[in-house]
Amino acid sequence: MNEPANTVSKDAPPTGTQTLLRGLGVVQAVASGARDLKEIARIIGTTRSTTHRLVSCLVEERYLRVLPQVGYLLGPKLIELGFQAREEVPLAMLARPYLDELSVLTGDTVHLAIREGDEVLYLHKNPGRNGPEMRSRVGHRMPLARTGIGKALIIDCTQEEWLRLYEVSRPVDGKSALWPQHPEQSWEQFLQRMRDYLAGGYAFDLEDNEPSIRCVAAPVRDAGNAIVAGISIASTVPYMPLGKMAELIPLIKQAAARLSAELGSKA
Fold this sequence. Notes:
Elements: H1 5-11, H2 16-31, H3 37-44, H4 48-60, E1 64-67, E2 71-74, H5 76-88, H6 91-106, E3 109-116, E4 119-126, E5 141-143, H7 148-153, H8 159-169, H9 187-200, E6 203-206, E7 213-221, E8 227-236, H10 242-262
């Protein structure tokens, strides 16, 4: 039986932009779970023969792979390009528009940081317009368990890791060298806060690291949903009352989510 004329035309070897878009459609279909030619053809709206040609080309160029009893999967070329794309744009450069936006909206100091061992490493700082200049700087390191951004970086860790980081961050004599009069959090207090932060997807610094400094922070995730960075909004107590901190939670979480999306996160 002859196919209808419009189907024959649709099945003709596509060229130019149409070919490119159909090829990308195949990749998207496989990424969404299509595993055989019939399902891919249904999703992208092409006949089986056209779909077969497109898929065969993508397999040959390693953008797709085919496994027995499984079907079509994304190929190694996409993995290579994904890593290359991530490495070509430094995290601080990618984050800059979101950090600048937070600065404009809040007037407070905005940080970007990553985890290095048991410490926070600051990669970027937008100084605030509110209050005195904060002592943090690019390249500065602080204990993970004592800063808001550090707590955001370890929010997914196990309770055992939280305890270890809590212990290594404690002053030897039980008093902070920066603030000797500041009462140290007990492990039970720290644990309850971390559980609350995990449930809420954010973290606070309530003068835990130095006097009069508070911040709201959130984790940044990659395509594998792993935490790769943190961002924070910080200021002194007069400019960062508890009510304002609560209001900043949705803002910092939204900025972190947008930056995470740039890194491939679908969370």
